[in-house]
């Protein structure tokens, strides 16, 4: 990640930028399409990567219970991929889950390498569909 990029908590004012960031992933069917209301909800426990004024990355956790939360909507602008931004966003989500005292954090992903680099592993190794990180 370069010096011009920062990670910070998402705010309601970021929703338009998050929508613009995620649109290509939605159109390529890599991420689910979400309403403004759903994005506002995710932003409560979400993080943005910002370069200058532009949102170039986003990830959030949705807390289902004290036992389980899920990382959702991880996306990094194509021209900024491969710079560790996705990993940094996942790490921020992991820290947020720990702050909330969640027991287990999961992700359903096609990009397993980002999650594996952050300590996640497959709950069902033969299936390779969902990756989990259990806090001891």
Low-confidence spans: none
Supply the CATH architecture.
3-Layer(aba) Sandwich
Give the count of helical stretches: 4
Q: What best-fitting shape do the alpha-carbon axes yield?
A: globular
Helix content: 25-40%
The termini sit apart by: 29 Å
C-alpha Rg (nearest Å)? 14 Å
What strand line-up does the widest sheet have? 1-2-3-4-5-7-6
Order of helices and strands: EHHEEEHEHEE
How many strand segments? 7
CATH class descriptor name:
Alpha Beta
The overall pLDDT average reads 89
What does this structure look like?
With 136 residues, the protein is α+β, with helices and mostly antiparallel strands. It has one domain: Aminopeptidase. Helix content is 30%, strand content 31%. It has 4 helices and 7 strands. The chain has helices at residues 15-27, 36-43, 85-99, 112-116; strands at residues 5-9, 46-51, 54-63, 68-76, 104-108, 121-122, 130-134. A 7-stranded mixed β-sheet has the order 1-2-3-4-5-7-6. The longest helix is centred in the last third of the chain and has 15 residues, at 85-99. The termini are far apart. The model has no long low-confidence stretch (mean pLDDT 89).
